[in-house]
Fold each of these.
Amino acid sequence: MSKLLVIFGATGQQGGSVAETVLNDAQLNKEYSIRGTTRDPSKPEAQSLVRRGVEMVSADVDDALSLRKAFEGAHTVFANTVTIYDGRTYEHETKHGQALADAAAAVGVPFYIYSTLPNAGKISAGTLKHMGHFDGKEETEQYIRTLPLRSAFIAPGSFMSNFHASMAPRPAGGDDDDDGTLVFASCVRPDTPMPLIDAAADTGKWVAAILADFPKYESQVLCCATTLYTFQEIADAMSRAARKTVVYKQLPAQRWRQALPPQMSDHLTEMLLYFQDFGYFGVGTDAKVRWAAEQARGELTTLDAYFEAHPLRL
């Protein structure tokens, strides 16, 4: 009899990648059946998974009973939380993350995989005050470790999909507009390294590694990224993809902050400065990323390949 894998948020980037990877893995597809959760199982993304043999059920992170029902009978749960920028980011992360873990423990789930992040507040010795989207996930991780669950963790790098949203290149403005030059701007030095992941394509490759050999990765954190790219290297990759000149421009932190949506501005500005001053995964970021990339169950997506599959909208 196959083991039941429950994927919380199976239609999201991370959960969807886990479902896709397991469905396409000859060994894991035989070993595991999949139950996915979503708020609305009737939506097209959910029904697409149903047609491929996934059981889709309704569950809401704010409804404890729905979580317990969704997790009932699971051998393994993969859980992740969605960051909400509304002035209470940290509180949402801890409340939602703990609710998911509590539900799994309440129904006796034996194995639990959680998508975490490093604690920037601790790593920066308290100098960064607006990193609740990181700190809340890590504090949830520590909470999970106190529960009667055998746990393992992934910590995704920065999503490549951000380059189609808040980190997309923009027209240069002024005389440079005449030759089509674009600007990729932020508030950090051009040599600042950032680990990048194609979350929708690759998250599942690390989760699959854990599913295939849970004892090997139990209690560990896999720092998930293809590799580290500097901001200058990202601009160069954008240039190749767009076949236009994309220049990297470092802005003063305050100017960068003012260009962002108000509820996200402090979070995103501190996040980038954290990458620059402390490293995304803290001390040893490069080694952590290299080791985790070697563990992935499948080839990882390079930034050039991501832009080829997902052209920049310019």
Amino acid sequence: MRVTHLLPLAVTAAALVIPDEATADQLRLEEPQEESVTWNDLLGWKEIRSKAKDVVSSVFETSHTTIDEAMTFGSKLGDEVKQAMHHCGGGDHGNNPWNEKIFKTDPRDWLDDVEEEVTDHGHHGHHGHHGHKPNQTIYELIKSSKYTTKLAELIDEDGDLVTVLNSTSSNYTFFAPTNHAFSKLPEDMDPPSKEAIKKTLLYHVSPDFYPAGRVLLSHTIPTLLKEKELGDFPQRIRFGLGFKGLELNFYSRVVAINIFATNGVIHGIDDILFLPSSTLDTFEFMPQYFSTLILGLVKTGLWHDFNVTAKAGQTFFTPDNIAFQKLPFEVTSFLFSDRGLKYLKAILKYHVVGNETLYSDAYYNAKKDTIDGGCDIPKGFFHIDLPTLLDGRPLGVDVARYGGFIEIKVNGFVRVVTQDGIAKDGVLQGVSDVLIPPKQIGGGHDDDAEKEEEEELTVESLKERLAPFVEDQEGEEMMNEL
């Protein structure tokens, strides 16, 4: 058994149920010692395999009848995982320099081996396990818990939502912020409007049934919030698994799971899920990653164009600063010069797909009629050609799905390294390289694309590839000069 398969097992066990903040402080692992990591340290993780399997099994087979009971269970489970890790000399591996290499792929890759078991547990319905048949609705469970009193107060102000959470005609999933989540809000923040509160609460509810096992195999899930700038499709929540636990939208963390109700299931979270920002606002929030992209959008005028254009969803294949640094220096210098801006504009337009939103596991197309708000991407291999803003020049996207593991490649060889950045008006898919239109249109194979990639990109070869998309503009500029 490879070491890389053992570590995600421990992560999965720790991530499924995390105690609240106060308990987590008590369970915090010791600080790492200033010493090198040896293979003996890594191989020591083998000893936790048996323990971790027992813990994972107990999570999949455990249901709770109250939120308070689930929080208590989380504390006990966290203690068991901590003891197993310390027994093996694991310490706090969150700062371990090996982690970046070990977890280069999503830890959910390990879940391929247990998908059948997880799926089986995930469809027991809202009757729970071991005879724990629920007798309260989602609303009643939230109302009766000491951990969700602030949430209950907000829900009580929205009669329509109370009706939904009390209805037993459907099974819902509610990601419930704890009182501790509300305590993180700034004391001097302006009170949100009733409409904003309603939208935020709807963003915490999925119209489908997602117990823990199914959540672990999901990358995104739909909510009750219909977003106009997505073409009135459901806004989605993004899930990711790491050493900090199961995270929603990169920041909120699951602290309790599988509180089953007569009309669905509740999972407790330690941060409120704020409504997603627009794509451009998201870039502005993270200049350390996207300053080069921002500069390009501003210099070419696309920033203004995107701001004033009405949207019905979009997919932005997002190159970060590192992706731009991979371009030859002379090419980057040319693109950001006055003479090269028209070529830079063409390249950036080639990264954007309008009115079509492609998540790693779902697809929205505002240009086609759909019955249930888009479609799920099937397991196995899925290919789609997405027309970009560059005169419809398509991007060939391949999605490979195996259990909880999903790999996305663009034009045969460019990897999506950060999947599913949720935005108000679409989704951000972080790509490893700046996308350059290939020489041939369609009908090519992956090996042809790779050969083009291996060829050294020069200013002249770049201008040759982009000539069909900028020659009209060049002609207009020449006429203006005359």
